[in-house]
Automatic annotation (TrEMBL):
SMART domains, alphabetized: Flavin_Reduct (SM00903)
One Pfam entry name: Flavin_Reduct
Listed name of the protein: Flavin reductase family protein
UniProt keywords, alphabetically: Oxidoreductase
InterPro entries with a match to the protein in the record: Flavin_Rdtase-like_dom, Split_barrel_FMN-bd
Lineage: Bacteria, Pseudomonadati, Pseudomonadota, Alphaproteobacteria, Rhodobacterales
Source organism (scientific name): Tritonibacter scottomollicae (Epibacterium scottomollicae)
Domain Flavin reductase like positions: 18-173
EC number per UniProt: 1.5.1.-
Amino acid sequence: MFYRPEDGHGLPHNPFNAVVTPRPIGWISTRSGDGVNNLAPYSFFNAVAYVPPQVMFASTSTKADQDGTKDSIANIRETGVFCVNIVEYAMRDAMNKSSAALDKGTDEFAHAGLEAIDCETINCARVAGVPAALECKLTQIIDLPGEANKVAFGEVVGVHLRDDCLVDGIFDVTRYQPLSRLGYRDYAKVSDLFSLTRPDD
């Protein structure tokens, strides 16, 4: 099968998200200029640089009570900061609950039954108990082709690691089983690892 996206795929559901998998989930916490906490999961998320460490996430839709975007991007525009909370398998239901399209004045931490605690280096909340959290300062927001496609890049200025996930100096993802996004309504958890040595190592 071959198709041009502009012509449509002719399938019951768009296969694009199922092709580009698995994708890590950036559980993005922000705080509005008025002090309201927000929390939302984004599967268009990844690390993009080592030095200084940098990450990105993309927002691809809008809300009626925001100007052409969603709460996360609107809050980051106001404050210049955000936090990436790493989602473990045990928090899958809370993550899913926080994805609801709620009014911009609603605190998703409370809606999902999560404890919000303050970050160390930025004026933003983070999710208590996550395996890791990355405190970020905005470097830029880029508009992509499409009605509401925006990418936020941030420099990581603070890193939280849960102590039980550190084993002999290694951050062991099998201790918490990171959740990843697949296509359609599907997810996966990482529980098995294998290593490969590069030819030039």
